[in-house]
Every structure is written in structure tokens, then in C-alpha cells.
Protein 1
Amino acid sequence: MTILSSGPTTSLVPAAPVAPVEPAGETVSFTVDGIETEVPKGTLVIRAAEQLGIQIPRFCDHPLLAPAGACRQCLVEVWAPGRDGKLAKMPKPQASCTLEATPGMQVKTQHTSPEADKAQHGVMELLLINHPLDCPVCDKGGECPLQNQAMSNGRASTRFVDVKRTFPKPIAISTQILLDRERCILCQRCTRFSEEIAGDVFIDLQKRGANQQIGTFDTSVLGFVGDAPLGASAEDTSGRPFASYFSGNTVQICPVGALTSAAYRFRSRPFDLVSTPGVAEHDAQGSAIRIDHRRGVVLRRLAGEDPTVNQEWITDKDRFAFTWQSAPDRITTPLVRNAAGELEPASWVEALDVAAAGLQAAQQPDDPRDTAVGVAVLPGGRLTLEDAYAYGKFARVALGTNDVDGRARPHSAEEEAFLGHHVAGRTLDVTFADLDRAPAVLLVGLEAEEEAGIAFLRLRDAVVHRKVRVLSVAALASRGLERLSGTLLPAAPGTEAEVLDGIGTDPSLAATAELLGSAGALVLVGERLAGVPGGFSAAVRLAQRTGARLAWVPRRVGERSAVEAGLLPSLLPGGRPVADSAARVDLAAAWGIDHVPSETGRSTSEILAAAHAGLLGGLVVGGLELADLPDPALAREALDRVPFLVSLEVRQSEVTDRADVVLPVAPPTEKSGTFVTWEGRPRPFPQALSSHAMADHRVLDRLADALGVELGLQTLEAVHAELDQLGGWDGARVGAPDVPASEPPVVAPGSAVLATWHLLLDGGRLQSGEQFLAGTAKRPVARISAGTAAAVGVQDGAGLSVSTDAGTLTLPAVVTEMPDHVVWLPTNAAGAGVRDALHVDAGAVVRLAPGPRTVEARS
Amino acid sequence: MATTLTPVLTDTWDADRSWSLATYEDAGGYRGLRRALGMQAGDVVTMVKDSGLRGRGGAGFPTGMKWGFLPAPDGGPRYLVVNADESEPGTCKDTPLMMASPQLLIEGMIITSYAIGCHHAFLYVRGEILHVYRRLLHAIEEARAAGYLGTDILGSGFDLEITLHSGAGAYICGEETALLDSLEGLRGQPRLKPPFPAVAGLYARPTVVNNVESIASVPSIVQGGSDWFKSMGTERSSGYGLFSLSGHVTRPGQYEAPLGITLRELLEMAGGIREGHQLKFWTPGGSSTPIFTAEHLDVPLDYESVGAAGSMLGTRALQIFDETTSVVRAVTRWTEFYKHESCGKCTPCREGTYWLTQVLQRIEAGQGTLADIDLLLDLCDNILGKAFCALGDGATSPITSAVQYFRDEFVAGTHTPADVLFPPEHSSLFSYTPKHTLVGVHA
């Protein structure tokens, strides 16, 4: 490998910079237990005490929730200077979780004040009188703030000899979240979370006094028609719950064992668990998680704490969807298709040899007239940076081709140009912190709650606390947008570019233009914009016109890794354009090869089309779901026809069925690696479980070895060393896309334009095996306007059939405020995948017809 | 000098159809409003401040000072909210006032609104008193028809609308911030203070929350002047107030008298304790105030003197109990009330009242222990001053004071049921047979 004489000036994916220290504002000096301290004005006494290492017991207090002062556990004695300047004792002990420090205040905690100590002991005794002594069977036992603080700040014995309050147990708030009310100490953390953070108030306080309890509501009362959960949940006494994507956080912040998850309930004891930090693999948000495992089995995942990314929250998908990694269909050994056409287990040596021979034959067929020549790589969209880099290098070095594309979804050449021009190499250009500070955020082709859960929570926090204005260019205002107090700029699918071009020119969008013109405004575009001709071009123009900063927020965890690692047919690692000879020379030098292929490769669709037409000799496929591709039927046929197919997979899939050689790879818990967030922030994670499974980069290194090529990517350290050495690119970038907006399609009577996006919880492969989570998914519905419904002759709630020449989907119709002649469907609801059934995506014209009279939601 | 009654608020209660606007106007009603509208708003505030009027809802905070806490007008709305959620055991002054003289309250609300710059006032009435709600609704309609409400009131250019709101039956909504939450359509639970209602009250706007009787006192102050008002009562507890005598008294009812009158004087007016019986204990200001005994007959009923004697003037709800009453039973009933009405927000009140009730019920049944008495006192200590709002504090007052004055009765509760020591039928005004049966060895 050639060592560059002068090292790279930038790294490929630089580590996130340390957050700048905010300039200190006004401060306050006061004492806690006689220790003088200086804190910013407005600091709560309980926080200031923490910083001094003084732990005041507490339950309702949570740093990310507004103070409540409900549990009264954190009472302290307070002396404060009066109007005359003389220090005077406050007549009552004060709740330190609601009390702001003031100059000259003297706080005495349980350590120095017998009064505070007695008050805390008194409250603790009262909390315990109605709390069951079921710690030995309670999931929280061993990690329970009530248990711990009862030991540290409670009486040794109770004086309560009377009748305890009991409840039938448990209430199923959803299929996933269970509530044992007798354990509840009514701290309201869960209700405050659902109100203040998630904004989906699925539980609240009910009744009063000693009968006060947390309960659920009838969804029909609250008007959540259409957003009811998929799972059975209507059986409890207080009404049905509805779908929340963040409900698992309430389990984690519950300071007692009142809220538990069905998935973890009665499964384990905290002291038997080994915890490993991790990063969630379900989206490009990069949420910090904690993986708790016991003897090689993951039992639960918790939110990790990372103020710069997910604070302390994660989506339910990140929390509960982990069983896919240990599903029964895991591939544990290499598989080779035998003469009978059946896959059979093989040794690594044999499998790699067969794969290498097949790939070589595909590159150089025996018969020179064979049109099926060359090998392409479709690595899928869920890769770590290291694995993505390995796929790219494998394609270019071992296979000598730029036919590699990490986009396993609808895509376009315009998008590719946008990614090369605007995204690649521009890491941490826009970050989560910018969402907090922005005066206005425009979402285009991005349904934040469904596709970017943490960005949604951070936006909501900004909306609630800093009056950030959220605008969305979409076909309809979702509940998620409503909870962001967002403004909808309605756009039928395919006309988004028109709306974007109208901002700043169309007088009716003058207010939006003004908002986006204010300093710090952001435009967040989603991956779905790839399906809109001219969409990315219009977004770039909009950003230039208004000065708003533009960021790409893809859905899948590996999307940004793929862009940075050069998993695009026209893009090399670090944003180096394939078309740029200097970039190719730079990369060839770093890789120690003569030259990097100069011909721009083929995109995912082009690769599949080539394979379908018999113009491709072989394919190396990573974790790819054929149903995710723009035309799954064509993809299936393409893979059937490609002469040689190598699959690197965690679990059996449709690709496995068609593969000639299957090489098992490790899921995230069984390897180390680095996910890259939509911001371009590296999120390294360690290996949680010991395993024989190998990461993709290691398998590719060995496959290259079998091909006689040394990739030098056998270990993570080697990959990192190479990434560090390679560094970023400061040369010319790919030019900005400039594609004109297309004319909206003509919609004939009985037809409509399809609008669709992925729901967070749906039929996705990484959610399989988690039935409790699946029950909280939103019930799949078809949304149409009242006008469209009338024209089609469908009533609200009745079945609506949506069809193309490829097939028909029938879902309950929900009349929604949205443009006429548009129908919205969830992209991949369980058993109702749009691409799979209709072979089309957003923007296509589909036929509408009344469906069967009664349609039951699938479960 | 013997104190005499000073009927101001109650002046027209005996008139024919006293609640009608015509009767009210005949008796000089709305003269205070006319005078106020001729004054600068600030002068009205100053006048009420000078009068020394203190909140009649129990806490006794100077009313004019409360008005003065509102920040300077910023162009946004400011609200007056009248607290008519009268629901404490024994307290029964606002309900008859609103029944007999609703126009007085409305006039007070108009003057107060004018003084504080409010154009939309709210009247939050206890949900259970539907008859009062109806009467107030009718009275507001009458006042509106006569031009006292609406736009350009009496040609002054001042606009005011009154919204009458009925509660849903929770004692906690008498706490001003819980009332505001309830009025906003939320769960009635007290809010964290600060911010205080004067800064961010109803719909987060500057808000004055006053008791019915405080507001009803305003027209007479404006009409009579602050000096006239101060000529009654004591130096720091000026003016008059309704004293609600109930229980074992010959003529129970509302007695309007200057603050500083004694129970001895009031009892003389009310015909004394019911015949053949003696005073045992009494509450000076409702069940939340520590009880008094016969030794306190001469305590002047003003804020300072009652406080110095170890209780609170509260709402001047004088519940009189004679020697037939079991203090244990009375205290247990009150505690059951607090348990029932605790909103549940904070631990000490929610759990404390739950526990206290069980201990007291044991003692009432004659099955307590001596340790239970100490437990009661210690629990009260663990609740008093630790709860989120004053409801928890109020729940402990009758218990600690009852143990202080009648510890023997609690000790008796370790062996004899209260209804054996004090048969309930002896306490009743009418002969009746208790429904419940005796328990334990006494059955």
C-alpha cells in the first residue's frame, strides 16, 4: 500500500467535534451542605447538588422533563436572605427539584439537616405504604430507584399495619406496554413524557386522591381514527390504547416496576445481565442504546444517554426490534448450491473458492460471445461505514467495476448527483443541535415521526420550547406534523418540485420564503424525493435562493455510510467523483493499484435491468430485501436470470433462494463497527455478543483473497487505518443536479396519484419475531379526500381497492383532509406492501374502486 | 362595648325577591359601580388597598395588594376569576350570598375588572350547587340586559363579559391554581408556583383570583370609602364579614359582623348553645383550621388574634359542637373528607390521608393502640408543610388540635368505641336510630 507523502487534511468521516462551551450567563452563588457553589441562574437546587456529588433522593424529577414537585421526596431545608438581607429559614422544607438556586441561599440536605432527613423518611414511608412488597418477582427489582432509595433514605421498618390499595393487574396499555397500578407511585414521569416529549398522550392520570391512577383512553374519544393500533388491545377496562412510537421510554423512566414491556416482563433479573453500549440499527438517527444480554442472548435494549443525538430517548423500534438478529432463519454456515440445485452447507474454504471461481467466470466468460458479462455489487442500505467501504473497494479493486449502488429503494440519477454534490464529504454540516436552534425547518419528502424518530423528538422539543416553525411539503398533514404544530404546504406526489420552486416566487408562499430566509433556517429532504423528478434540483435551488441550509435525512442506517464510502456508481469514497481523474489517481495511490475504473457504473435499477436482460454475468448482493426495490417483480426475475449470484446475508431471504453461494455475515450485536448518522456523525459501537460470525468487510476481504486480490480489510483496525490514511477530498465535487420539474400526470376519472411513505412499524424484516411490538403498529389504511371518496363511491371506513396492472391492495378508507385525486397508502404495511403488490411508488397513477364491504385490519 | 351586627352584604337578604335586579337597585345597588367608573382605575385599586380588605376565602391576603401584583398592561388580556368553589366542611357563606344577592357579586366583579383592566371575568361555581348556578346565570342575564355588562357599560367605554363556569365536584378546585387548570378544561390539580397567577394565571395571562365575599365587599368599599370600611373591625383586620354558625347552636345561620367579634358575642346573638348543653369544641374557620374549645370563647375573631391562639380565621365557618359529640368521630369524618378530596398529585396528602383515615377509624372503633396516637401526630408532622398545596396541611389541623385538647378521648379509643362513649343519637337535633352496629367486644 502506498503511503502518501503528506497525510490527508481531513478524515473520511471525522469524529464529532466537542460541543463548544456555551458562554456563561449570569451565575448564582449559594451553598449546599455548607459547600459554596456557583451555578448558572435558573439552576434547580437538585441539579446543583448533583454537581457537588450530593445525591438528594427523588422520583418525579427527571432532567429532561419539566419540574413537577409531585413526589415530595427531595425535600430540603432552605435558608434564604430576606428583603432585609438577613438569612431566614423558609417555614416549610422545599422540594429541591422545583426550587431555583438564588444568591446567598443556604441549602441543607438530609446530610446536614435533621428536618430534611425526617421529611424524606416521612415521604418514603408514605410512598411505601401502598407499594407491594413484591420486589423478588418484580422486573425492576435490583435496578429500582424506589428499592434503592428506600434502603438509603427510608425507615428500616414500616408502621403501616392497615389495608393496602390493590388493583387488578396488569392493564395492557398496548400489546407491548403493561401497567401494574399497585406498584405505581404516581410520579407522573410517564404522563409527562407522553405529553411533553412524544406528544402522543396515550396515558394520563385518572380519578383522584388514593384512587388516582394512570389509565388509558378510548381512542375514539380523542379522535385518533385511523391511527389505532394493529394489535388487539381493546379488552382492558378503560378503553383502547392507540399507537405510540415512543412508549417504551416510559418503561425505562418509570422509577418503579409499574410499567413493564411484554417482551421483557418476567424474563430476567437485572443483576444477571451484561450490558454493552450500542447504536441502533433501525434508522439513520444513530441512537445510543444499551444492549442487555445474558449468556449470549439479548434480552432487552434500553436507551443510551447521548445529549448530542438521542438525549435519553429511543423509538420503540430501536428498543424492541432486536430478535431478528437471532431469528431461527439465521444463516450460520456458508451455503453452496449443489448440482441438484439445492443449497447445502459448505466450509468457508469451499464456499469462497466456489464464489471466486463463479465471479471470475462471470467477468471473463468462456464463450467470448456471451453477453452476460461482468459482476455488479448491490450491498443494501444497512451497512456500517467499514462494511460499506469494503463493498466499494471490493467492487473497484477486486471486480474492477463501478457497478455498485447502496440504494435499495427508489432512486434517480438526479439524486446521485445531489448526493455527490451536496452530501458526500460534508459531514456534520447540519446536526441535531441545529434543529434546536433553527427558526424554521422545512421538511420535504420526509415524514419525521415515521422516518426519523429522534429528529422528530428534537424538533418537537424545539417547537415546544423555542417556538421553531415546522413546515412540510407533503400530500397530507400527518399526526406527526400536527404534533410539531407544523404547517402543511400541500403537494400532490410529483409536484413537490413545483412547490419548492414557488417559495420565493409565488406570493402565496411568501411567508414560507421569509421564514426560510431567516438565519439558521433548515431544509430537510428525505430519500423519497428521489422519486420526484426535479425534486433535489429544486431543493438545491431553494437553499441557494433563501440561504437556508439543506440536509439529507435518509431512513436507513447505512445510507450515509454508503455515500461517504462511495457506494454509488459515480462516486468514490469521501466524495471523490469517478469522473475526476485526479480523484481516481488519488484513490488508486491510496489503494496501491494502477488505476481505479474510470467508467461511471450502473445504478441499482440499471444493474437489475441489465441482469434481467441477460447482460450481467454475476452479482454480489449484501443485505437486500427485494420487496424494498422499486420493482420487486423485476428484481426477482433479474436475480433468477443472473448466471452467478453471491449473497452475504444474516438471515435467509429471497436472495438466498436464488443465490449460488451464500456467505453468512454478522448482525450488529455480533460485530463492532461504525454507523453514520444522517448528519455524517460516526457512531462507533463495540461487539456485544461473542460470535463466530464475521462482519461483511472480513468476508469480502477473504473473498477478494480467493480472487487473488489483497484488500487489506481483514480487521476493523486495518479498515480504520486505511480510512484515516485515505481521508476526505478537497478537490472538485460532483456538479449540482439541474433537472426540470416534470408535468404532473393526467389523472383520469377513477384514478388517483399515489402518495406513500414508510411507517416506522410495518412489515419490515428487522421487526420480525417481535409480536408485541407489531401490535403497536398503526393499522394500515388508505387515505383519500372527501371529494375523492365521493367520486369513487367509498365511505369512510369501507374498503378501498387500489390497483395497477400488477395487482390490487384493499385497505379501509379513511377520509382525510388532503388534495383530491390523491390516495395515500403505507409503503410497507405488514401484508400490504405497495411496491410488492403494485410495482409502483409515490407519484404513480393508480386506479381506485370500492373494495369488499368489510375489511379487517391484518394482524 | 358589645359588638353589634353590621349588615352590609346581608343588608337586602330579607327583602322580597332579594335576588332580583330591581330589588337590588331599589336598595341602592350599582351606585358603587357608577362611582367607580367615574374614578381612575388605579384610584379604585388604591381605595381597596387603603381599606385593608383581606381575602375572605381563608388565607386573608390583602385584596388590594393582590391586584397591585399584576404586571403593567402589555396589551394582552388580563382576567378576574372569582372563586365560588365553596366546599369545605362547615363553610357556607358564599352560597347563601350568591343565592340572596347575586347582583352584589356581579357589581363587585365589574368594579374589580374595571380596576385591574380586565374585560373578561370568570365565575367558577362549585358544581354541586346547581341552584346557585341557575340564579347566577339569571342574574348575569339581568345585569347584561340592564347594560351593566357588555360593551360600553353605563356609557363609560368600559367593556366586560362574565363567563359562569360550573365545577365538576372537587374540593381541590377551590385552590386557586387548581381552579385555573379546571377552568381551562384540565385536570384540577394545583400548579407549580411560581409563576403566580398574577403573572401567568388563566391561559398564562395575568389573573386575579378572589373569593366571592371579597369581591362582594368591593361595591360597599367604593361607595362608603376606605375610612368607613376601616371604621369596622380591628386595625389589621378591618371591615365586616359573614360568620357562619352551624351545629349545636340555637339559631344557626349567617351573622354579618365586624372582624374581631368573639364567639361569646356571636353565641349571644344566636341564642346560645342548644338548650341544656355546653360548648365542647368549635372550628373558627372551617374544618381545615385547628379546633378551639370553650377556653377560646373570648378570642377576638380577627386574623391576628385567632392566629395567636393557635388556629386560623379561615372562612369564619364556626361549627359548634356540644358535649355530646365525640371529637374522635368528628375528626375521623373530616379526615375521610380530606382523603376523598385529596387530588392525588403529591405523596404526603394522597398517601397520608389514606393512612390517617385507617388509623382514625381504628381508634373510633375502640381498637386503637396508644402507639396509634403518636403515629397520628407523627404522620401529621410528616404531612404538614411537606405537601404540594395547603390541602394536606389542612387535613392535619383538626387531628393535631383534637389530640392536643382531647387526648383522653383518643386514649379511650384504645378500648371503647366512640359511639359507646358518645352515642350519636344524643348529638342529633332529631331523634334517630344509628344505622351501624357496634363492633368488637361491644357488639
Protein 2
Amino acid sequence: MSNQWRWAVLLLPLLAFLLLVVFLLRGLFSDPTELSSALVGKPVPQFSVPDLYDPSQTYTQDVLRGEPLLLNVWATWCPTCRAEHEYLNQLAAQGVPIVGLNYKDDSRDKAVSWLNTLGDPYRLNLFDADGAVALELGVYGAPETFLIDADGLIRYRHVGDVNERVWQGELGQRYRALLTPGEG
Amino acid sequence: MGGFRTTLFVALTLVMTLTLAGQPAHAQDLEVYTFDEPAKEAVFQELIDELRCPKCQNQSIADSDAALARDLRDRTYLMVKSGASKQEVIDFMVARYGDFVHYQPPMTVATSILWWGPIAVLVIGGLVVLVRVRSQRSSEVELSPEDRLRLAELREAQKKDDDS
């Protein structure tokens, strides 16, 4: 009996130490800039913004309902947005609906000429000149990509560029799960 | 010579510390935010020091000159100016940017270990010490009558040796 206790006394600190090691190792390899969105599971906030091409046309949050889609926050001043742009073109060609939210860009013309040059993967182009919509979404940098389901609920937020690895990873998996009925 | 250099060094350090301590290291010119009530200005100052810039993670939105920090300062200003309380502004920011945005995170299951961990370590350590001390005390062997007799004889013999 007392021998068993002796073992427990010896093993307990070791266990505590191993737990601490696991915890600290996880911290070492986690990316502190990847914050999970506070809006996951919540509906897209209300907004009203003009179209990027046509200032007389305005859109509300209702345009983000109906089917699972990606909301991509981008700007011409953002180098990573350029890096991911070709992959977005590919996703759009595969039939993935993407809505673009142009975030505090230098000018409307600059954004339009970017899309004319590099291609326009977006089904809709929202023009958020003062960043008001982005603030409602908790955007803290571009690019960010939100996964929104058919009911207009935010399901996931990816910070950084979208590429093949990301699309095979959590973002793409969650999107594909939303397409399968009875899941997600 | 060495003494002079040390004195100079201490004096310089002192001067620099005092100069820096006198001025809060705010990145932007706070003069642009004007308030009609001093109370609101105080709330605003507290808020921009307590709210954390999500982009530049180790700075408050008062310290950071990132564009996002400016946006958050502007929004804080507008909200405070139009009569929002401190808690309302914090709730607004946390709803959008998460607990991360506030430098005083709430106590949740995930953060409770930070609050209670050190106390738990102290209590557990204290208990271990207590148990060990007690078990040592109880392990002191009670002498049998024969042993007592033998001990007394040995002491007696020792005493005689010393005396002779």
C-alpha cells in the first residue's frame, strides 16, 4: 500500500512536467497571428455597400445568403492578395462562389484595373471604402476569407492567402462539408 | 576613474528613465480627439490603453500607428463621444475581434488556469511538505522495554568511560 503511494508521489511530478511540455510545445508551434473569429456561428452583420464597378448599385448582407460561399477580403495594397489571386481564379473556375470585399483600397479605379488585369474571380464585388463592413466582421488584415453557409451564418474564417494547401485543409474541408446535405 | 564612470552611467540611466516615464509613448497625436466633457476624455484614454491592436499584437491601439489601430481609435472616439459607456465600447470590440482585443481577458475555463494555477501550485506544495513532515514524525519508533533497558545500560557504560 505505502509502496503504491511512493510510486504515485514519484510519478505525479513527472506527469505534471510532461503535461507542461506538451502545452508549451503546442504554444511554440502555434501561430499567434491566426486568431479565430469572434463571429463564427453568428450571422453576417448588417451592411449596405456599393458595387465596386457601379457606385449606384448597393448591396446588403442578403446577397450572402442562398448557398455556401466564400467572402474574400482584399485590396490592391496587399501583396498577399496578389499571391492568392490566381488560386481564387482557379476556385471560381471550379464553380466555388466567391464574393469579393474590397477593403479600404487606394481608389476604386485601382481596384477595377487590378481585376481587369488579373481576372475577376468574384461573383459580386463589394466596395468597402472606409472599412466599416470589415470592422463589423472583425477583419484585422487582408487577405481574410470567410466561409458563409446558405443561411448567411459565418462558419469559419481563414487569415492569410488561400492556396492549394489551405483548400485541402480546414477551409476547403468545411466548404465541401456544407455542400453535402445532412452534414456541416 | 571607475567610480566616476559608474556615477555617470547611473546618472544617465536615471535621466533617461525619468524622461521616458514622464511621457506616455503614444504613437499618434491625441490632440485631434477633442471632447466637450473631461469625463468622456478620461474614458477614451482608458479605452485606447486597454484595447489591444489585433494587427500588431503587443501594442494597445493608443501605441500602435497601424491603420487598423487608427480605425479602432476613431470608432472608440465616436462611440464615447456619442455617450457610450466604457463597457459598451469593450463589448462592441470583443463581439467583433474576440477576447483578444481587450487587455483584461475575462475569466473563462480556458483562462482560469492562469488565475488559479499559481495558487494551486502553492497549496499542493504546502500539502506535500505537511504530509512529509507528519509521516516522518509518525515513523519515529516507539522503544520496547528491553530496548530501553539496553539503552540505559549503554549510556551508563558511556558515562563510566568518560569519567575514568
